[in-house]
């Protein structure tokens, strides 16, 4: 009996589990149906049945039908694409047509709407064959058409999917979006100028209306004249300002100022005077944003350039390593700041312009799917440029060189004149300019003669005969060296014989100088003075060569041939006579 009771309990538990699973599946199925649409009791009861021209099964059909009806002036029929549930049925007939007309004007002027980009599926599910989007294949019951701003607030125009009873679900503009139409119409509706335009010019011709084809060239010409006026006024201000940094700065920002003024005036005209279609308005606004950002960035760059010029002038002439380190470090910082401003400006303009044209929304999935390919292509194509940019920032942060530093680069004495994004400009000692790519510069060893101190220990060598009096020459060198202004730390002056052969000894002198360039000058002066002293007072101290004269040469007609001393005392005249007489050194 106990065994039979146990099996009965198992059967009851299995039955209960089966029934609960069926109920759970049924409830989740019903829940999934609810997520596909909004269930309502009625839709636009005051408008009556929609005409056959109204298609609302998919989002694309709904908007395409709405645009076609409004273009024909059938605003009462177009009102069936709006969810007017916030209005009383008696008011829907009267206000529905007006709201449809206003919404059509808003969509034409507010934001460029690509109907073909809307979903053509009834459930508006995202189709993604790449499998990168986690939301792909899931039905949606609302989606965004446009996002418009006015009075500092953002309003979304959204479509929602609604179903009444067992009828087929349809897509309508959601009530929240319909309620924002009056506010958006004040901002994006026709301007007061359009009230004076004849009706025949309001017909569409291509992507624009006839009057827009006429007004846009006039509009651009007017804005161009305003920009030219600003340019001329800036030139007058340059001449009126005192000569110096202010006048130089104003003269350099004439073009950016004119473009900024043109951009601002164009924006004011688009907001308060004239309102073009979305195609023209979107193009204008993207261009205006880019011009405004570029102009502001250029003004900032010109300001930094002017400060750099003022700094250079304060350093009295050309930059070199004799100038104070703080001033050269400040100038190097200005160059780094200039590169940062350029990078930030370009990045901000690019990101902001791309966000305004919604490139990331329309191509986001495609870019995500091909991100690896694009990364490889961009990396290969821009390897040199990106490498130079990164290297220039590396130099700015590491401070291995500064503006004005004296460097020995590939056996050239050069002063660092400028550190830019992709290259370094060096001024050679003979006033030539070396333009060196940044990556090439940092990949080669170089001497920075100004990194710690400009002082340099130099030496000069003079070959002399073995009979030269070294002590006498040492005293003369000390005397001449102390007379040189650029020779410092006299206690480090020294002279030594650093090498010798059978007939010649090498006399080397060492001196400390204030900087490399003046050290080279001091070395040349001391060499000239030492050579003049030896030439005028002890010419016998110069190295000499031995001459071998044979008996045959004395008795014959041939002149004796000099033979250099080979250092071991043996002379050779390349003759066949073995009885050679060697001349003594003079």
Short description:
This protein has 586 residues and is an alpha+beta fold. The protein has 18 helices and 17 strands.
Explain how this protein is built:
The strands form 5 sheets. The protein has a 5-stranded antiparallel sheet with strand order 10-9-8-7-11. The chain contains 18 helices and 17 strands. It is of the alpha+beta class and 586 residues long. Mean pLDDT is 76; it is low at 19-31, 359-371 and 565-586. The termini are far apart. Helix 7 packs antiparallel against helix 9 (254-272), helix 8 (245-252) runs antiparallel to helix 10 and helix 9 (254-272) runs antiparallel to helix 10 (278-314). 50% of the residues lie in helices and 16% in strands. A hairpin with a 2-residue loop joins strand 5 (204-205) and strand 6 (208-209). The chain has 3 domains: 40-189, no CATH class; 211-448, no CATH class; 456-541, Alpha-Beta Plaits (2-Layer Sandwich), CATH 3.30.70.100.
Tag the structure with descriptive keywords.
single chain; 586 residues; alpha+beta; Alpha-Beta Plaits; 3 domains; 5-stranded antiparallel beta sheet; 4-stranded mixed beta sheet; 17 strands; elongated; disordered C terminus
């Amino acid at each position: 009996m106990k065994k039979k009771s146990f099996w009965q309990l198992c059967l009851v538990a299995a039955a209960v589990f089966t029934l609960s699973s069926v109920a759970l599946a049924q409830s989740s199925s019903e829940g999934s149906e609810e997520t596909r649409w909004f269930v309502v009791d009625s839709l636009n009861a005051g408008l009556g049945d929609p005409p056959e021209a109204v298609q609302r099964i998919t989002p694309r059909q709904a908007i395409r039908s709405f645009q076609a009806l409004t273009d024909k002036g059938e605003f009462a029929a177009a009102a069936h694409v709006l969810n007017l549930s916030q209005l009383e049925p008696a008011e829907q007939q009267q206000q529905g047509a007006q709201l449809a007309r206003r919404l059509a004007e808003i969509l034409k002027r507010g934001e460029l709407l690509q109907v073909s980009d809307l979903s053509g599926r009834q459930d508006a599910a995202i189709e993604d064959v790449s499998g990168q989007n986690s939301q792909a294949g899931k039905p949606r019951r609302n989606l965004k058409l446009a996002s418009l701003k006015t009075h500092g607030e953002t309003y979304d125009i959204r479509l929602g999917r609604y179903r009444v009873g067992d009828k087929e679900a349809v897509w309508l503009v959601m009530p929240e979006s319909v309620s924002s139409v009056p506010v958006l119409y004040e901002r994006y509706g026709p301007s007061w100028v359009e009230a004076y335009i004849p009706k025949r010019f309001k017909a569409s011709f291509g992507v624009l209306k006839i009057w827009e084809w006429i007004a846009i060239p006039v509009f651009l010409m007017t804005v161009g004249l305003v920009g030219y006026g600003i340019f001329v006024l800036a030139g007058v201000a340059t001449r009126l300002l005192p000569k110096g940094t202010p006048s130089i700065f104003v003269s350099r920002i004439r073009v950016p100022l004119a473009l900024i003024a043109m951009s601002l005036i164009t924006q004011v005209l688009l907001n308060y005077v004239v309102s073009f279609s979305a195609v023209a308005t979107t193009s204008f606004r993207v261009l205006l944003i880019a011009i405004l950002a570029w102009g502001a960035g250029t003004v900032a760059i010109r300001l930094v350039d002017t400060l750099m010029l003022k700094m250079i002038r304060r350093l009295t002439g050309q930059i070199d390593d004799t100038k104070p380190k703080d001033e050269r470090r400040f100038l190097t910082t200005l160059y780094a700041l200039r590169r940062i401003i350029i990078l930030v400006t370009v990045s901000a303009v690019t990101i902001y312009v791309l966000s305004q044209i919604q490139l990331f929304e329309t191509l986001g999935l495609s870019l995500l799917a091909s991100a690896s390919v694009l990364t490889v292509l961009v990396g290969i194509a821009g390897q040199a440029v990106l490498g130079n940019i990164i290297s220039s920032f590396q130099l700015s942060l590491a401070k291995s060189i500064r503006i004005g530093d004296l460097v020995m680069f590939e056996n050239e004495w050069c002063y660092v004149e400028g550190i830019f994004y992709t290259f370094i400009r060096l001024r050679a000692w003979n006033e030539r300019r070396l333009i060196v790519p940044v990556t090439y510069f940092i990949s080669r060893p170089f001497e920075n003669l100004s990194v710690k101190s400009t002082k340099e220990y130099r030496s000069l060598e003079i070959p002399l005969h073995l009979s030269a009096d070294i002590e006498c020459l040492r005293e003369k060198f000390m005397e001449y060296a102390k007379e040189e202004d650029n020779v410092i730390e006299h206690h480090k002056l020294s002279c030594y014989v650093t090498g010798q052969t059978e007939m010649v000894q090498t006399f080397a002198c060492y001196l400390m100088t204030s900087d490399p360039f003046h050290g080279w000058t001091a070395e040349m002066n001391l060499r000239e003075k030492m050579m003049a002293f030896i030439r005028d007072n002890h010419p016998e101290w110069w190295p000499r060569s031995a001459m071998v004269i044979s008996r045959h040469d004395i008795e014959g007609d041939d002149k004796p041939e000099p033979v250099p001393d080979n250092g071991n005392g043996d002379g050779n005249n390349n003759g066949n006579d073995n009885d050679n007489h060697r001349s003594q050194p003079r």
